[in-house]
UniProtKB/TrEMBL annotation:
Belongs to the ARV1 family. The keyword Transcription does not apply. It comes from Eulacestoma nigropectus. The keyword S-adenosyl-L-methionine does not apply. This is Protein ARV. The gene is Arv1. Keywords: Endoplasmic reticulum, Lipid metabolism, Lipid transport, Membrane, Transmembrane, Transmembrane helix, Transport. It is found in: Endoplasmic reticulum membrane. GO terms for biological process: intracellular sterol transport; regulation of plasma membrane sterol distribution; sphingolipid metabolic process; sterol metabolic process. Mediator of sterol homeostasis involved in sterol uptake, trafficking and distribution into membranes. GO terms for cellular component: cortical endoplasmic reticulum; endoplasmic reticulum membrane; Golgi apparatus.
Length: 242
């Protein structure tokens, strides 16, 4: 149950204070009969994780607002393993958007072609391109961080945790679908805002995971974008339709 999970994570020293990022041995103490007391951080003298009492909707809202405390709660003090599925779903959303734009640019108004388009491989090609771009983006980030702060990424677990944080912080791409469904004159502006929001979320995830200042994560994001565009340009020069 919940108590077993907490004891297991405490044995691994996996808890973090959401305020100061200090280590903690427990999130709360169970006095039985439904009486719980939130643990106090020894470093900052604040509750280790106030979000354990919050509704998941409130936690999600705080994460959307890119609050570092919410990110620490999700990454360090919960057992969430949806990053892989979330990544695939976000890539599908992006591939669908590109596939839809590709069909709109075909200038073909024959309704019978909709069935034919559904059977073509353009959607899977768009999915492959989106996967290539995101992989290149992440590689650029890892190279930059490993070069700037090699002591932060010494262990395999550090890479895995950062990758998990980056995958979870791409949840903003889910907004691509409603932006396309409710299409209007400002759709290109909405898509640009979604892109910026995803980059801000990525930056906050890097900052929280590695406990860095605000400048270095943005430097890593900037280099990741450059590396992503560089890889795409390279494949285009090789004759690939990317």
């Amino acid at each position: 149950g919940r108590g077993v999970l907490q004891r297991a994570m405490a044995a691994l020293g996996a808890y973090r204070c959401i305020e100061c990022n200090g280590e903690a041995t427990e999130l709360y103490r169970d006095y039985q009969r439904g009486v719980l007391r939130i643990s106090i951080c020894k470093s900052c003298q604040k509750p280790v994780d106030k979000y354990i009492e919050y509704d998941p909707v409130i936690i999600l809202i705080n994460a959307v607002l890119c609050k570092a405390q919410a990110y620490r709660h999700i990454l360090f003090n919960t057992k969430i393993n949806i990053h892989g599925k979330l990544c695939i779903f976000c890539l599908l959303c992006e591939a669908y958007l590109r596939w839809l734009q590709l069909q709109d640019s075909s200038q073909n108004t024959d309704p019978d072609d909709l069935i034919r388009y559904a059977k073509e491989w353009d959607f899977y090609r768009m999915f492959g391109i989106a996967s290539l771009e995101q992989t290149s983006f992440f590689i650029g980030i890892f190279i930059t961080l490993w070069w700037m702060t090699p002591e932060m990424l010494k262990r395999k677990s550090d890479f895995i945790l950062l990758l998990k944080a980056l995958l979870l912080s791409t949840y903003g791409k889910l907004l691509l679908i409603p932006a396309v469904i409710w299409e209007h004159d400002y759709t290109p502006l909405c898509l640009a805002f979604i892109k910026v929001f995803v980059l801000i979320s990525n930056s906050q995830a890097i900052r929280v995971t590695l406990n860095l200042n605000r400048i270095l994560p943005w430097f890593a994001i900037f280099f990741g974008v450059i590396f992503e565009n560089g890889v795409v340009c390279l494949f285009q020069k090789m004759g690939w339709d990317v």
